[in-house]
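TASK: fixed-backbone design
INPUT:
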């Protein structure tokens, strides 16, 4: 018989059986899951920009058995995984029970690996299904997607055209450096990259401003970020998750500087539709405006409010 597991802790991440999900509630501050025994687990909206996606997934999983995940920042949390969550996963049955259950002859490390593979496959299946559904669009929606893509390409070409010869040479070198380092990073995808600290002067760098504008994250007090690398993107950008911020998906630029150190000079938005609203909300060259971080936070909120309103209309 398999060992029945109510929870499994892997690093600072805890996966916990929740049972049959019967209700999804929402308050001003929290997204709340309710199981068939009346137990609840909550997600604080102010901490997670992805709470609406979690709500959508939870509503699709009503009347099904689920797991919840909590933690993942690389540090122990003062909050309990029995009360809070930051991810919800369909607890698909298998020959050994639920996703967290393992064959009795597997050692502790093997049990963790088996559970992680099942959880990863379950999440991939969900996102693959969502992508398949998104392909079933009408002609008008397809035209709109094409227009968005053309607008995105035009923006990238405009960015390239504004680069000085030195900046173009620097970008070319960064692309080469990332391509050369990528095979080694795939073998060890947990990496830490430097970012400039503001120091006593409080000077904001481009990366501080774009992190706040595009992700609502204040990195001004940090000197490096721990990430899990996933795949390459355009130029010297890579897809990753931010281990210090609850595994938030992110697209970061990477550049190697004198001394061989790697730094993050900028970040790209996950949703290409973001840029049309950034352009509407910000003044010209606004992403490099000489303003305090609170100004960029306000602009982030305004941009995402407009983006969400446009999404709901669709």
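OUTPUT:
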């Amino acid at each position: 018989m398999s060992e029945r597991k109510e929870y499994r802790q892997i690093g600072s991440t805890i996966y916990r059986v929740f049972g049959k999900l019967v209700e999804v509630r929402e308050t001003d501050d929290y997204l709340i899951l309710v199981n068939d025994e009346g137990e609840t687990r909550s997600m604080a909206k102010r901490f997670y920009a992805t709470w609406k996606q979690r709500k959508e997934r939870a509503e699709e999983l009503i009347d099904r058995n689920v797991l919840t995940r909590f933690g993942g920042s690389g540090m122990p949390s003062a909050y309990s995984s029995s009360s809070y969550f930051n991810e919800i996963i369909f607890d698909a049955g298998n020959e050994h029970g639920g996703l967290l259950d393992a064959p009795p002859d597997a050692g502790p490390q093997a049990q963790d690996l088996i559970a992680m593979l099942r959880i990863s496959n379950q999440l991939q299946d969900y996102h693959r299904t969502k992508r398949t559904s998104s392909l079933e669009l009408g002609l008008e929606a397809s035209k709109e997607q094409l227009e968005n893509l053309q607008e995105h390409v035009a923006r990238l070409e405009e960015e390239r055209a504004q680069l000085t010869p030195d900046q173009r040479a620097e970008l070319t070198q960064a692309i080469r450096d990332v391509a050369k380092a990528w095979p080694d990073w795939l073998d060890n995808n947990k990496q830490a990259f430097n970012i400039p600290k503001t120091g006593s002067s409080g000077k904001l760098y481009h990366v501080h401003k774009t992190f706040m504008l595009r992700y609502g994250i204040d990195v001004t007090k940090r000197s490096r970020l721990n990430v899990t690398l996933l795949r390459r993107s355009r130029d010297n950008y890579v897809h990753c998750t931010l281990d210090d911020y609850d595994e938030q998906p992110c697209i970061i630029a990477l550049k190697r500087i004198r001394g061989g150190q790697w730094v993050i000079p900028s970040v790209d938005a996950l949703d290409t539709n973001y840029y049309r609203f950034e352009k509407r909300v910000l003044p010209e060259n606004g992403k490099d405006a000489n303003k305090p971080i609170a100004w960029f936070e306000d602009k982030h909120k305004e941009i995402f409010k407009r983006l969400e309103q446009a999404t709901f209309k669709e």
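COMMENT: The mean pLDDT is 81.
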